[in-house]
Design brief:
Blueprint: H1 5-9, E1 15-20, H2 29-38, E2 44-47, H3 59-68, E3 73-78, H4 84-96, E4 101-105, H5 126-137, E5 154-159, H6 167-180, E6 183-188, H7 192-205, E7 210-216, H8 221-230, H9 238-245, H10 252-269, E8 275-279, H11 287-293
Parallel strand pairs: 1-2, 1-8, 2-3, 3-4, 4-5, 5-6, 6-7, 7-8
Helix pairs in contact: 5-6, 6-7, 8-9, 10-11
């Protein structure tokens, strides 16, 4: 049996989580293969929830595959697609099936995705979602009605250390901490000084919240430029883009693995934060190579 993620967070070890991207359809074999590949290499696996507003296999379904393979799943729940009734019902089902970790996120704008005509819900925001789950953990639904059989979720959220200006992001993060979170998985960070700034702020608010730095695998200089120019909160330094551009196109992925591994090694060696969250975006099998480049042995 997998060790509960809540216990891992308190263990003092350097924590590694990774992301599983669901498929667009019911052919889930690749997703299952990636889970099998990574299950002994990481402490927990996230399943994205219609990431980038693209309709795909549900996070909850992917989490059940992870749980069946005795790995700790982290359920992603976005506020964009469901109202409070649907969210609470999904959470009851998830907990009854052994899914005990939740990542609370707002959700990417629908205009980014493949159904831009869809109507966003946003019945509650990410701070209220954290409060909702805390309320359920206490034995009641959001309306104050008693639950017949409760839940006990380990609650996580996201943050953006590279946001500019950083002040609004820190204010919102402070509200999330006050609402009651156990861990945070950050947006991709390439400037470790920005990560240190965020960690220092977080520690002052609540030193017990565990911080996992987000590391996105860059497959090419073009990808680095696109992330820097199109994804709010991700800043890829010009020096890194130039470094990626210096290698032949066919070597871009190998260079990206080297860069990601180097970032993780520095984060670990310098004890900047409590661990990392690796986002390989469709190349989950490369997580093992990233960990090798970071000097982190697999089991």
């Amino acid at each position: 049996m997998a060790e509960p993620f809540r216990k891992i967070l308190k263990s003092g070890k350097f924590i590694v989580t990774a992301e599983i991207g669901p498929v667009k359809g019911t052919n889930v074999q690749k997703m299952i293969d990636n889970i099998e590949l990574l299950k002994t290499k990481v402490d927990a696996l996230n399943v994205t929830d219609n990431q980038s507003a693209v309709m795909k296999y549900p996070s909850l379904g992917g989490c059940l595959f992870i749980k069946e393979r005795e790995v700790e799943p982290i359920l992603q729940v976005t506020c964009r697609d469901r109202n409070r009734l649907s969210i609470q019902a999904d959470l009851l089902f998830a907990f009854s099936r052994g899914v005990e970790n939740v990542l609370c996120i707002t959700g990417d704008a629908l205009k980014m995705g493949d159904h831009p005509e869809a109507k966003p819900v946003y019945d509650i925001d990410s701070v209220q979602l954290i409060q909702l789950i805390r309320n359920m953990n206490s034995g009641k639904d959001l309306a104050g009605n008693k639950l017949d059989g409760g839940v006990d979720f380990c609650i996580g959220t996201t943050a953006t250390p590279s946001a500019e200006p950083i002040e609004p992001q820190l204010i919102k993060y402070g509200k999330k901490v006050k609402a009651g979170i156990d861990f945070v998985q950050t947006q991709a960070v390439y400037d470790l000084n920005e990560l240190k700034r965020f960690v220092n702020y977080s520690r002052k608010i609540n030193k017990d919240v565990k911080i996992l730095a987000g590391v996105v695998l860059l497959a090419s200089a073009g990808m680095a430029k696109w992330l820097d120019g199109n994804v709010p909160g991700i800043i890829v330094p010009r020096s890194l883009i130039d470094e990626m551009a210096e290698v032949p196109e066919e070597e871009g992925l190998s260079k990206g693995i080297e860069v990601a591994g180097g970032l993780i090694k520095r984060i670990k060696d310098e004890e900047i934060c409590d661990g990392v969250h690796i986002m390989a975006i469709g190349k989950e099998e490369k997580v093992i190579d990233i960990l090798k480049a970071a000097g982190i042995p697999g089991d």
